[in-house]
Design goal:
The chain has 3 domains: 184 residues, FAD/NAD(P)-binding domain (3-Layer(bba) Sandwich); 139 residues, 3-Layer(bba) Sandwich (FAD/NAD(P)-binding domain); 68 residues, BFD-like [2Fe-2S]-binding domain (Arc Repressor Mutant, subunit A, Orthogonal Bundle), CATH 1.10.10.1100. The chain has 470 residues and is of the alpha/beta class. Strands 1, 2, 3, 4, 5, 6 and 19 form a 7-stranded mixed β-sheet that branches. Strands 8-15-9-10-11 form a 5-stranded parallel β-sheet. The radius of gyration is 22 Å and the shape is globular. The protein binds flavin-adenine dinucleotide. The site of flavin-adenine dinucleotide has 36 residues, from helix 1, strand 4, strand 7, helix 5 and helix 6.
Length: 470
Amino acid sequence: MMAEVNLAIIGAGPAGMAAATAAAEAGLSVTLLDEQSRVGGQVYRDIERATGKRAEILGQDYLAGRVLAEKLSEPETSYVPNATVWQAAQDGMLSYSTDGVAKQITADRVLIATGALERPVPLPGWTLPGVMMAGAGQILLKQSGVLAKRAVIAGAGPLIYLIAAQMVRAGTPPLAIVETQTWADFIQAQKHLAGGFRGWRYLSKGLGLIAELRRAGVKRYQAASNLSVEGGAHAEAVVVDHRGRAVRIGCDTVFLHMGVVPNTQLSRAMNLDHEWYQTQHCFRPITDEWGRSSAERVFIAGDGAGIFGAKSAEIVGHIASLKIAVDLDRINAAEFERRVRPLIHASARERAIRPFLDVAYPPSKEIMSPEDATIVCRCEEVTAGDIRKYASMGCEGPNQTKAFGRPGMGPCQGRYCGLTVSMILAEENHRTMNETGYYRIRPPIKPLTLGELAQLDETGGDGEEGMDLG
Ligand SMILES: Cc1cc2nc3c(=O)[nH]c(=O)nc-3n(C[C@H](O)[C@H](O)[C@H](O)COP(=O)(O)OP(=O)(O)OC[C@H]3O[C@@H](n4cnc5c(N)ncnc54)[C@H](O)[C@@H]3O)c2cc1C
């Protein structure tokens, strides 16, 4: 099969943008696909249009993404917006839909740069209208300038402070921040303080954000437990145990957040090898130091291979492109060594803070093992108790649960329940996460109409080749 491009990149966040620019500079033909209408990814979402007040609210770190977006407008890179990749094969064939039309493209190498997803936060009341993930609330701000009034932010992780500070700057401060990380977590994290000091810029930014929140009078409930959301037709209050007593905080909107996890939908659908990464309580695809996955032609860069942040994503995207340029004889081994060494040092520097943050801000035990009545699979309304019942009936792995009660078979294809289902099964069956495994993800990984599928023949693709609808 003669490939149409040297490199197809999925995802135009920092990893994908940096990789596209570096690959084009090395003389590769590049196609960059992203389901959003503009480049930027999660962190720099809509960066090209952010001006005035919105730019001021989102801050300097966000505006740094402009440089990446500007460099991208080189003629060697073909950028396809609104392109949702719903199938990818190890031989380099990708299927995607754009504006309701399905297409295929073949590439010598594929780089998956699909970033992270917010960790699901299954707790009582999380399915009520008015409850959303904090990152989703931030997307409303970045993309539409919309902000919630009378909101409470609850969970754990540094992103909470950033989003709260952005709300303060926008004139709609959160009513309160409820934090579930404990003092014991913080003490545990001290053993990674050396890395914390190497990443002092991040520490000082975090402390700056907390000071900004204090000045704005935002109330913080730290080391809170038994987090739940109360309401009838709509969220009405966040309820927590704090310092030995139950606290009820009335609100209209609840932003939940317990960190982000690699988006492995495509890497799973491609049958690449994955492993459980205990430090970050998530699965991640196995890659070598250059980002090559268990398949020769497929690379993964950025948060999709483990959560290390936007700057690190940019650097590892660059590194993967250099390695691909060696693979395809655009640069030689000596040139590669010369160019990659400083990037490796920069990447280590950017990642140094991460072990400290991972231990200081873990997801709460309550969401990793939710109480029986809590809905875990939102699409099919399957509860944690249902999953435990399946385990007691001999169900050993997440794929089997589908036969019992359809979790993971709704429109989100397991994105919001996969981790929790695996965690509950591992706990109930006394097995490790690697032994328990994850859902087998089948293409199409996103909803696709029959009409789109039928068009593949008309648009030049071959509806049969490389297509496994399992
Ligand atoms: C909701 C959310 C908000 C965040 N906000 C911040 C923040 O404000 N500051 C911060 O420092 N970090 C933030 N993070 C963390 C941040 O996303 C990462 O550190 C950084 O963006 C990782 O860069 P990346 O290039 O790996 O992926 P991303 O920036 O996430 O880019 C991935 C891109 O892949 C695209 N994509 C995914 N799947 C497909 C598909 N099947 N087909 C086509 N395109 C696809 C997405 O549309 C996205 O544009 C946020 C994370 C999330 C999930």
